[in-house]
């Protein structure tokens, strides 16, 4: 058994640990840089709590269906757990564990007083009515209510969940608690305590660190080429902001296909088309290219903003981007990471690049607790300050240790987490 597999929980496949195995490899890579805190590194390799729940729901046709739900709390050392809930037919425990761990790193990188958590339900919401999705959501929150709380673990939106989903979650928890609990989730509608700027926060954060990385690389963004995989809130927001700065988005790929225009895609029109048709495929007056051709395009900035594991050893050799800004969680495998680094590609890692979402979620939580709400301008200014400072710190660590930005981000975050663990000690 390899050293890595010693840390695979017994309920996962030791030979194929999936995304959790990727996270463990990332921890192993950063361990030599942790110095006096290295004895605590095992803290990062075991999630504090992994909950699997059954979600029985009566469907519209009167039948009863069962769904599998998860809530994993990786680390609560630095504060309450924080992390979204995703609805997807391919969600696995390994994936949710890894996502919770990346949330621990992400919140620590930007200095938020949170730990890492994540949730998911294994189903495709597109196959169910709105009423069925609501019943699934409410039963899920009821089943995990013992491990979440305003000061314990705060869910938020993720893949295939949105403000309405959060509204159902908040209402369900509040009804059970017998009082209004707006701070139990973030990403809520504005009417029930949501924060201005939350919808665009992740994409805006990707844009902020992308601009900083381009500046460090000496890239003039006026006329620079940008390619984006994934065109939901994150990808479309980043696309719009880069275009406003003078860059041109030459290609977009999503689950329906890939579209291309060497002179730049009409982003506003593309956003409207996707909202109406559900994907980029079929957009008039643009060229459709294959997914393989998308990855091989020459570009200054590539933004993977879809699901994890999209850039692998099979396509990394073909990538001709100068900078990759990871809008998605875990889009690059460790093997691909090595290939891209050897080819001189700068990668701004997910735990830094897409931390804008959790940062504004933190703002929402703070506003809920204070019952005092900020303007969107103030929120965007605070977000820019935090993201800029985090990028500057990670970049300085990378230069100090002569490592990649990903390793530097993990050094920064893991040191913060383990320092807290050492100060708190072990109980009993």
UniProtKB/TrEMBL annotation:
Catalytic activity field: L-glutamate + NADP(+) + H2O = 2-oxoglutarate + NH4(+) + NADPH + H(+)
All copies of domain Glutamate/phenylalanine/leucine/valine/L-tryptophan dehydrogenase C-terminal, residue ranges: 195-425
SUPFAM superfamilies cross-referenced by the UniProt entry: Aminoacid dehydrogenase-like, N-terminal domain (SSF53223), NAD(P)-binding Rossmann-fold domains (SSF51735)
Identification of the protein by name: Glutamate dehydrogenase
Assigned protein family: Belongs to the Glu/Leu/Phe/Val dehydrogenases family.
SMART domains: ELFV_dehydrog (SM00839)
Function (record text): Catalyzes the reversible oxidative deamination of glutamate to alpha-ketoglutarate and ammonia.
PROSITE patterns in the cross-refs: GLFV_DEHYDROGENASE
MF terms (GO), sorted A to Z: oxidoreductase activity
Superkingdom of origin organism: Bacteria
Keyword set includes NAD: no
Record keywords, A-Z: Oxidoreductase
